[in-house]
Amino acid sequence: MFSGSPPRNGLVLAALGLALTRLSCSSLAAPDIPHIATYFGTKTRYEEVNPHLLRDALSANGSALKPPPSERCTPVHLTAVIRHGSRYPTAKNIRRIQKLSELVRTEASRAPGAPGWLQDIQSRWEMWFTEDMDGQLVMKGREDLRQLAVRLSLLLPALLSEENQRRFSVRSSSKHRCVSSVESFQEGLQLLWGRSEVQYSHRVDDELMRFFERCRGYVEGVENNRTALLEVEKFKHGEEMEAVRRRMADKLGLPHHRLTPDLVEAAFFLCSYELSIRSLLSPWCFLFDESDAKVLEYKSDLKQYWKRSHGHVISSLSSCPLFHHVFRTLDKAGRPRRSTEASPEPASILVGHAETLLPLLSLLGLYKDQTPLTAANYHAQHGRSFRTSLIVPYAANLLFVLYDCQRGPRLQLLVNESPVRFPGLEGEDAPLYRDVRANYRHLLDGCDFHRECEGRTSGRGPNTEL
Ligand SMILES: *[C@@H]1O[C@H](CO)[C@@H](O)[C@H](O)[C@H]1NC(C)=O
Ligand SMILES: *[C@@H]1O[C@H](CO)[C@@H](O)[C@H](O)[C@H]1NC(C)=O
Hints:
With 466 residues, the chain is an alpha/beta fold. The chain has 20 helices and 7 strands. It has a 7-stranded mixed β-sheet with strand order 3-2-4-1-5-6-7, with helices on both faces. Helix 4 packs across helix 12, helix 6 crosses helix 7 and helix 10 (230-236) runs antiparallel to helix 13 (290-308).
């Protein structure tokens, strides 16, 4: 199974390989990846962002760590903010899929000589989702997190080590899929260490991981405010989506007016779910060509942009508690200390949602395009940096690696295991920590959750100074 990759920790990895067999085999056995798999937004598999994992899911890429070679740096702390792994659709989406499959079964006209995939959709495909699956983590999602844990431990062996384990801080959102994910992460580490019995130690912390639902200004100004997501509604009924909808109705042999934009999206997601949950090339995928998929991706990106990111400043500001928590942890880990003092926390593992990661990434100033994403500028946004398929797939992660270096502590950021530079400090992969602090001074000294979240109820204008 690991042929082609150099031997690493020999026996241990072999044992782990056995424990992780199911995924590696299923992904090897599924060479047919839909041509639109990189456009599923927050429903994208992690492997689409890092395709080399399809060949070897446990390969850590050491060259992603980039402290200046001349300064003899050693990693001293990792903070990892991680999204849960692959999951079932939520009940709302399951109901939409149900509706779509019924519509096709009862109203689609069946042409003789239709292509195989269309016959599959019209006659053979069976609804297998049930409402009780509602957003739960799937087996593949557990493997996402186990494998991520192994790769991170191979990447930073001195930090995510067995000896350090008792000094890790591990926290999770209370949602079932996150708790299952944080457990899987710990399983991955302990399997790597050759433990036969896995012990869990994590804390549920919604104040930190689900800050968004506690921020009144956000909930009232954005979440429950239809006008805050006006651009999404406009695009949903705009010309690009209309064209996708008409083409899909024609392919299925459905009357145009019966196929709503929500049902178009349900078919697109169905393709994504059959891939991410069962490693299947779903017949539903053939309804879309690449340009259709790009339109549907933009629709999802618009939603995340206006609901969770730069669209409304309050969305990023709602993550102030998490921002401060991360920097407090880094402050402690980087502080000089006497040899008699206890060494600091080697790792802080924080498991949450795309809704946790996006506001924090936005607050840090990442993925902010010059022009806001709107319903009207789809074509101009072709090269945008805000692509949720790349930023927040399942098991997405934001890593802060703190190094001890000759000139003082340095901090590097990685998103989904690839280096990303701090906006404002683009000259270096791992700038001095004090420069990072100076860069975010306005937030470190402010970004007060109560003032931002209770002080006002409006969503505030788009794209103000942050
Ligand atoms: C490893 O990381 C380096 C630096 O980020 C990157 O250029 C390279 O493509 C990565 N290799 C793989 C196999 O992902
Ligand atoms: C709803 O959003 C709009 C547009 O962002 C904003 O102008 C308005 O103040 C918001 N309403 C509330 C109640 O916050």
